[in-house]
C-alpha cells in the first residue's frame, strides 16, 4: 500500500511538470471551470424561480448536491478520463505488454498514470458550492455528519471508479471509446438532481442498475445530517461489489488480450 | 447546380454510413439533457406533466432538426490546414457543409418521426393538435431555425482564421442559447427580463418558436412578428457571414502566401 502511495505521488509529480509546460492553458481552463459552475447555478436558479422544492429538496440542499456532483465530476476528469484514450492506444498497438511487465498492478497503472491536474479546480469549486449551499441552508454539519460524509463519499468514489474502469475495459473490444464516455456523461448528468425527482423506469434504472443517484445523493444527505448507518453500510457494500466486478472484468479482458496478442 | 448538389448529397450520405455508431451515439446523447430537464419541470408543476412531455419531446425533435456542428468542423479544418483543400474545389466550401446538414437532418427525421408516431400511440400526450396552416408554419419555422443556427455556427467557425479557440467562443454562445432558446425551460417559465431578451435575440427562433407554433402558444400576431424578427436575423447573419468570408480569405492568403 505504501508503495502504491509513492507511485501515485510520482505520477502526480510527472503530470504536474507536464502541465506546467502549458501554463497559458491554465488560465483558460480556470475560466472554463468557473463558467461551467456558474451555468449550473443559473440553471438551478431558473428552476427555483418557479418553486421552492425539487423532489422534496430545498434550494440550499440542491446546491449541496450540485457541489457534490461537481466535485465528483472533477475527480473523473482529473484521474479517469485522461487515461481512457491511452488504454485504447495500448490495446491497439500492443504496447500494453510494457504495462503488464511493470512491477505495479496493471489496473492501478492503467487508471492513474495520466492526471489532468487543473481539473482539481472543479473539485475545489464543488466544495465551495457545498459550503455555499450549507450557508443558504443555515446548517452547520456536526462532526458525525462530516465523518459520515467522508465515508459515503469514499464509497461514491469507489463506485465511480469501478463504473469507469468497466467502461475503460471495454476498449479491448470497442474501437471508438469517446462515444462510450459520452453515454456515461449523459447518464451521470441525471445525478445532478435529487433522485426522488425522477419517476417510473428512469428512477429504477438510475437507482438500482447504474446507481447515479446513490453516488451523489447519499453524500449530500449525509452532510445535511440526514444519514443513517444502514444506508451508509449499504453504499459501502455496493461500492465493494462494483469494485470486485470491475476487477473481475479487467482480469477477463486481460485474458482476452493475451489470447489476441499471442 | 442541382446536379452538383445531388452528387454532393450522395457523397455525404456514403460518408455518414461509415460512421453509423457515432451517429447513433450523438443522437442518444442529445436526448439525455432535455429528458432530465423534463423530469425537473414535471416535478415542479405535476399538474402540467402532459404538456411538458409534449414540449420536451418537441425540443428533442426540433433541436435535432436545427442543430449545427459546423463550428467544430471549421475550427479543426482551418487549424489543421485541410480547409485549403476545400478551397481548391470548384464549389464554394459552404455547399459541402449545407449538403452535410441536409443529409444528417434527413436521417434524424427518418428515425425520429416514426419513433414519435409509435410513442404517440402509447402516450396520448404526444399527439399534436395542429391545423393545416399550423403544420405549414411549423415546418417553415423549423427550416428557418435550421438556417439561423447553421449561419451562426458557420460564421463563428470562420473566426478560426483569427482566433485559435473558436470552439470555446461558441461554447459561450451555446450556453446563452441554452437558456434563451427554450431548452432549459419553456420560455414562459423564465423571469420576465430574460423572456423579453429572448424575443429579440435569435436563439428563440432556433428551437422554441416552432414549438410555440405547434402547441398554439403563440397567437397570430406573435407568429407574424416572430417570423419578421427571425427573417431580420437571417439577413444580418448572411451579411456577417459574407463579410467574414471576404476578410477571412484575405487573411488566409496573407498567411498562406
Automatic annotation (TrEMBL), chain A:
- The residue range of the signal peptide is none
Asked if the keyword Transmembrane helix belongs to this entry, the reply reads: yes
Query: What InterPro entries does the record tag this protein with?
Result: ABC-2_transporter-like
- Pfam families xrefs: ABC2_membrane_6
Protein keywords: Membrane, Transmembrane, Transmembrane helix
Q: Where are the transmembrane segments?
A: 26-48, 54-76, 116-136, 148-175, 196-215, 227-246
PANTHER family linked to this entry: SLR0610 PROTEIN (PTHR36833:SF2), SLR0610 PROTEIN-RELATED (PTHR36833)
- The name under which this protein is listed is ABC-2 transporter family protein
Query: Which species expresses this protein natively?
Result: Geobacillus kaustophilus
TrEMBL record, chain B:
Which keywords accompany this UniProt record? Membrane, Transmembrane, Transmembrane helix
Which InterPro entries does its entry note? ABC-2_transporter-like (IPR010390)
* Lineage: superkingdom: Bacteria
Q: Which Pfam families match?
A: ABC2_membrane_6
Chain ranges passing through the membrane: 21-41, 53-72, 106-126, 132-152, 159-180, 226-245
Protein name, please? ABC-2 transporter family protein
Organism this protein belongs to? Geobacillus kaustophilus
